[in-house]
Structure formats: structure tokens, C-alpha cells
Design goal:
Strand order of the largest sheet: 2-1-5-6
CATH superfamily: Glutaredoxin
Number of strands: 6
Oligomer: single chain
Radius of gyration: 19 Å
Structural class: alpha+beta
CATH architecture: 3-Layer(aba) Sandwich
Largest sheet: 4 strands, mixed
Order of helices and strands: HHEHHEEEHEEHH
Length: 170
């Protein structure tokens, strides 16, 4: 009976620690803006734009929020270097881009989004850089962010960039 109580106490401790860690990870300190507000902010601040294209039903989108966008290093880097926009691809609001109005689904399709999550990167002048499809873990996401923020995409392929950084690729 004593062993059962000890095992139960340890199990409760592990569950509590796991829930605490999960809660800490899910509390992102990022300031997400709507598409229209974020684009105006980007124009004024001369920062590149990161657009998180998601849907409410997307499990990988939720994992990206919990494991990547809540990562301390990712949060700091994004806050310093990008204007952050979150766009629900199934949303009903009208988004204004380069003189035209779109639904979020229309704009996502125009950028080549065909799955969720997708991360769009735009230049300071709002022209597209690239679309990153799917979930990416925080360490690799940091490399991608630096590659974009430092304009390395204008000079070399991402694989070459990673080789220069000593990052092993699968």
C-alpha cells in the first residue's frame, strides 16, 4: 500500500510538472496583429513581415504555437526583427494587399499556401520573399528567421547557408 501511495504521488508530481511546462510554453509573448494593421505597421517600421497562416482545426498549427512561437529565443528574435501577422485562412474579414481586397483564403492561395500551418515572409515593401509550409521545430526555425532577416536569401541557397553555419541537414 505504501508503494502504491509513493507511485501515485510521483505520478501526480510528473503530471503537475508537465502541465506547468505546457502552460509556460503556451504563453506566447508575441504581439500578433491583424493583416491590415500589421501591413500598415510594417510600412511605417520598415521591418520584414512574418505571416502565420493557420486554421482553427489544424493540430500542427497548435503545435507550432505551443512549441515554436512560445520558445524564448524565437519570441525575442521575432519581436526584434519582424512585424507579426496572424491570419486565419478560413476567416471572414477582408484583407487589403497591394491595392486589392481579398478574403484570407484568396490571399493565402495567391501566395501559394496549400496546407497549414504556413509561414509567409514579406519584404519591408510588402513583396513576397517565400512561403514556408508546415511545422518546423524551434532550432531550425531560428536558422530560417536569421536567413530571412539578414537577407541571406538574396545571396545563397538555404542549404548552403546551413552548411556555412555548421548545421547538419537530414
Amino acid at each position: 500500500m505504501k508503494n502504491v501511495a509513493i507511485v501515485f504521488a510521483l505520478l501526480c508530481l510528473l503530471i503537475t510538472d508537465g502541465l506547468t511546462a505546457q502552460t509556460k510554453n503556451s504563453k506566447s509573448k508575441l504581439k500578433w496583429e491583424s493583416f491590415n494593421t500589421g501591413m500598415a505597421h510594417a510600412k511605417a517600421s520598415h521591418k520584414k513581415v512574418l505571416i502565420d497562416v493557420y486554421t482553427d482545426w489544424c493540430g500542427w498549427c497548435k503545435k507550432m504555437d505551443a512549441n515554436v512561437y512560445s520558445d524564448h529565443d524565437v519570441t525575442e528574435y521575432l519581436t526584434k526583427n519582424f512585424v507579426l501577422i496572424r491570419m486565419n485562412a478560413e476567416g471572414s474579414e477582408s484583407v487589403h494587399y497591394q491595392g486589392q481586397d481579398y478574403s484570407p483564403a484568396q490571399l493565402a492561395a495567391a501566395f501559394g499556401v496549400n496546407g497549414y500551418p504556413s509561414t509567409l515572409f514579406l519584404k519591408e515593401d510588402s513583396n513576397p520573399i517565400t512561403v514556408l509550409p508546415g511545422y518546423v521545430d524551434a532550432p531550425m526555425f531560428m536558422h530560417i528567421l536569421a536567413y530571412i532577416a539578414d537577407n541571406e536569401y538574396e545571396k545563397k541557397q538555404f542549404g548552403d547557408y546551413l552548411k556555412e553555419k555548421g548545421v547538419k541537414q537530414d
